[in-house]
Write a structure and sequence with these properties.
Largest sheet of chain B: 5 strands, mixed
Number of helices of chain B: 4
Helix content of chain B: 10-25%
Distance between the termini of chain B: 86 Å
Strand order of the largest sheet of chain B: 1-2-7-6-3
Number of strands of chain B: 9
Structural class of chain B: alpha/beta
CATH architecture of chain A: Orthogonal Bundle
CATH superfamily of chain A: Cytochrome-c3 Hydrogenase, chain B
CATH topology of chain A: Cytochrome-c3 Hydrogenase, chain B
Shape of chain B: flat
Number of strands of chain A: 8
Strand content of chain A: 5-15%
Radius of gyration of chain A: 21 Å
CATH superfamily of the largest domain in chain B: NADH:ubiquinone oxidoreductase Nqo5 subunit
Shape of chain A: globular
Distance between the termini of chain A: 35 Å
Number of helices of chain A: 15
CATH topology of the largest domain in chain B: Beta Polymerase, domain 2
Helix content of chain A: 40-55%
Strand order of the largest sheet of chain A: 1-2-3
CATH architecture of the largest domain in chain B: 2-Layer Sandwich
Number of domains of chain B: 3
Largest sheet of chain A: 3 strands, antiparallel
Oligomer: heterodimer
Structural class of chain A: alpha+beta
Order of helices and strands of chain A: EEEHHHHHEEHHHHHHEEEHHHH
Chain lengths: 392, 224
């Protein structure tokens, strides 16, 4: 397919995908700065060891592990279902999509079917999650630019309405533990559907407001345009996914590619960037929010009645046959995958999470080299990570 | 998408002596995998990326397969000398014997490949180390796919596979002077990660010595 529009890696010189080694120019000493682990811009506990020549970054090494709890080992020590609430804690901004990716991987392993209504509920909740993730991600980015408060509070106001919906349906605002293998835990009432329609009807107004407030803002444009450029061929080679990849102009959205769940029933477009910079990443998120509203409207209109759990699904004594499966979804931050190996026992033999946040950081150094240290904060913010998922 | 059999024969045509094996997956997911010989892994990986356009390495991870004791019952036929009616005779006899053997373990690296250019995948490739103790080296695929960089560091950290040719092989999640590999199945966690000896006894000894000295000199402050 030529539509993806990027250059293949073939015939490139060796080492083309490595960050260049930069030398300080001129006199003066190299300043080594540890940004983090408690820097306010690091979204948690994350450290960048930066070497500066004046204001210019000439080396950047990310340091991980401050939030490491060996989630995968925990997952191998408990039953398949026992891990479900723990997946909420990976990317704690988007627990629904974490549940979904895990449920999808297990369903691949066992071949369970998901009823129609449950698929629609998954899409509705998944797109609400994507919307609030992108909204707060934009809010954080602008916050890091120095506009402390307003855009982030606007985003959180909207996020609050969506979290209220989650709470009404699942009993928890963030740690939802909502999905099961072969469906969803509880059904949505008619009253909840009405409330969801009301919230979704108000979302376009919010996106317009953000768009008017920010998109042509002089400071935002000056700070983000031409900063942190990521070339498409490197983005693909480095496994970057999600809005980051699409902002680099590569047409790859797993909702379209795999069409998992029922995504091939909905009409939506995949916005692509063509300047590959921080501004494009901001804009792609804004446009994806609009597409999410479109999907939500279609799903809320078409959702059928019926059960939300596969009646044959087994909750007790759940032992998949030996084998392995890799299931992945388009989470708001990128490709979230679960790789499971079953040996026929009640616990997974191997339980692996492919975290989009960690792998998107592979190219952080490439994007930051040669930029000013103040822009590193913006470039890092435009990757949109959650440390709960990076360190697992 | 091509089946794994087709991909296997394409690899064998392009990289002579590649030594690719198909590992069937009995689960309904149908994601069969290819096991590469570590000696030809880089050549095969480059071929997969450039010619079959598997340009995107999604997931890289390790799996630990510890030594396994297998108990099996084997029927053995042997010749026994028996005295039948006062005459010694060689008689053939079939007995069932329980034998135990140790199936040697290994560490395995698993990679999931997709094609962005052709919207294909996943193709699962895997490599095995010689054993779990001293032959734990595998070639790094980071020069071919950059996305393996942090993931191979994580495998090195948590499983202890040493990737030769990796540009920056350090621990990723655990701290630098941590000794073990926590994702191995026989890993036993220490009682207390934070244990550090305090100077309690040393200080007490010094205080007692000081007091004794003061008392001997008949000074004030020898105190209780």
């Amino acid at each position: 397919m030529s539509g993806s529009g990027f250059v293949q890696a073939k015939d490139k010189p060796e080492g083309w995908n490595r960050p260049p080694v930069m030398e300080p120019d001129g006199e003066g000493e190299l300043l080594e700065v540890a940004m983090g682990p408690h820097h306010p811009s690091t979204h948690g506990v994350f450290r960048m060891d930066v070497a500066l020549d004046g204001e210019r970054v000439i080396r950047l090494k990310p340091v991980f592990g401050y939030l490491h709890r060996n989630h995968e080992k925990l997952g191998e020590g408990m039953s398949y279902l026992g891990s479900m609430p723990f997946t909420d804690r990976l990317d704690y901004i988007c627990p629904i999509t974490n549940n979904w990716a895990y449920a999808l991987a297990v369903e691949k392993l066992t071949g369970q079917e998901v009823p129609e209504r449950a698929e629609y509920l998954r899409v509705i909740l998944g797109e609400l999650t994507r919307f609030q993730n992108h909204a707060s991600s934009i809010g954080f980015l602008i916050q890091e630019m120095g506009a402390s408060g307003t855009p982030l509070m606007y985003a959180f106001r909207e996020r609050e309405k969506i979290l209220d919906l989650f709470e009404a349906l699942t009993g928890a605002r963030m740690m939802v533990n909502y999905m099961r293998f072969g469906g969803c835990r509880v059904d949505a009432s008619a009253a909840w559907m009405d409330a969801a329609r009301k919230v979704v009807a108000a979302l376009p107004g919010f996106v317009d407001e953000m768009d008017r407030l920010l998109s042509t803002n002089e400071i935002l444009m000056a700070r983000t345009q031409g900063i942190g450029i990521l070339r498409p061929e490197l983005a693909v080679n480095a496994g970057v996914t999600g809005p980051m990849l699409r902002a680099s102009g590569v047409n790859y959205d797993i909702r379209k590619v795999d069409g998992y769940g029922i995504y091939n029933r909905f009409n939506f477009r995949v916005p692509l960037g063509d300047h590959w910079d921080v501004y494009d990443r901001y804009m792609i998120r804004l446009l994806e929010m609009r597409e999410s509203i479109g999907i939500l409207e279609q799903a809320l209109k078409d959702i059928p009645a019926g059960p939300v759990m596969d009646p044959k699904a087994k909750l007790r004594g759940f032992r998949p046959k030996p084998g392995e499966a890799y299931g992945r979804i388009e989470a708001p931050k990128g490709e979230l995958g679960f790789y499971l190996i079953s040996d026929g026992g009640p616990n997974p033999y191997r339980y692996r999470i492919r975290p989009p946040s960690l792998i998107n950081l592979t190219v952080l150094e490439d994007m930051a080299l040669g930029e000013n240290v103040a822009d590193v904060v913006l470039i890092f913010g435009s990757v949109d990570i959650v440390l709960g998922e990076v360190d697992r | 998408m091509k089946t794994v059999e087709e991909i296997k024969s394409a690899i064998e045509a392009a990289v002579p002596g590649a030594g690719v094996e198909i590992v069937p997956n009995p689960s309904v997911s149908g994601q069969h995998s290819l096991r590469l010989a570590p000696s030809h892994a880089i050549a095969v990986a480059t071929y997969l990326r450039d010619e079959l356009l598997f340009d995107y390495l999604s997931n890289a991870t390790g799996v630990d397969w510890p030594d396994k004791e297998v108990t099996e019952k084997v029927k053995v036929t042997r010749t026994v000398t028996k005295t039948v009616d006062g005459v010694e005779k060689a008689v053939e006899e079939t007995v069932e014997e329980t034998r135990r053997r140790v199936q040697p373990g290994c560490l395995e690296a698993v990679y999931h490949l997709y094609s962005v250019a052709k919207n294909e995948g996943p193709l699962v490739i895997r490599m095995r180390t010689g054993n779990r103790t001293d032959q734990v080296e595998l070639p790094s695929l980071t020069p071919v796919w950059r996305s393996a960089e942090f993931q191979e560091r994580e495998i090195f950290d948590l499983f202890g596979i040493v990737f030769t040719g990796h540009p920056d092989l350090r621990r990723l999640l655990m701290w630098n002077n941590f000794k073990d590999h926590p994702m191995r199945r026989d890993y036993v966690e220490p009682d207390d990660f934070e244990y550090e000896p305090t100077a309690h006894d040393e200080v007490l000894k010094r205080a007692q010595a000081h007091r004794a000295e003061a008392e001997a000199a008949g000074r004030e402050g020898a105190g209780a």
